[in-house]
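G.,

No rush on this.
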Amino acid sequence: MAALSTATREVFIEGVRAVLETWPVLQIAVDNGFGGMYSKQKAEWMVDAVQQYFHDNADLQLYEVEDFLSEVMNNEFDTMVDDGSLPQVAEAVCQMFRQCQQGKLSEVREQINQLVKVKGSGRVKATPVKNPAGEEEESEEEEEDAAESMECEAETEGSSSVATAQKQQEPSSTQSPDEDGWTVVRRRK
């Protein structure tokens, strides 16, 4: 893709920033520190990296932009994007670049304004799942006690529990012993 003039390049940078700041996957990664303590700085760097990628490479295809974004998310935020948003984000950035190349800066600014409105309406948050009402969380001491009691039971029962479990398991019509003594489980038809 052809290089942009300085003024056009700045509009494109604003567009990339608007697209990335409204991308829920990136928002979650930044808000939850998936990129470490410098997650916000990495997100800002990503804006520059994307615009530089377009500046340095001619005739970029959509799949190349998707791959680039995916690689950055994986390397910098330890995040695999599998929510289906990657093609949409790549298409939005490619479309803005094409419009900037064609001198349609007013259209790009309008898209940026729409994205800023979306951004202002709220951010996506990853929240931990809470226990259902009435259930209390086990304290660490209770968990340790339970683990210790399981270890003690396992040590006292030893191999006799394994033999008992094998005796209780009777071969059904879907299981047949192999010549080596292994039980082969077959699918019911």
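When you get to it, here's the other one too:
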Amino acid sequence: MIDHVGLKVSDFPKAKEFYTKILAPLGYAPVKEVTAEMTGGTYAGVGFGPAGKPEFWIGTGAATGPIHVAFLAPTRAAVEAFYAAGIAAGGKDHGPPGVRAHYHPNYFGAFVLDADGNNIEAVCHSTA
């Protein structure tokens, strides 16, 4: 349904490093970067995604947040790796890995706050 989503961050270089680290366990990497010169203005950004398709963008400007974004994880181990990477990269704990049965019995998620207070989640819907 949604092709891509983006948000503005207050410290673009720091956010790029943070998201590169926390999205790697989920199979996402920087796949497209644009400069202010390329966009004809002041916006610079980077798009993350799988296999060359940028689906999640961060860029320069006044911070958008706080917002909540949930990334689909292939396994519960990937959720745990996302959370560990997020904390190691300077994110703040907003809910450690675990089952959130109030959503559904197999909802396994973890939540990390980025430097702008955005609630970034990884979620796996299987039992593995």
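The mean pLDDT is 94. Residues 76-88 form the longest helix (13 residues).

Enjoy the weekend,
O.
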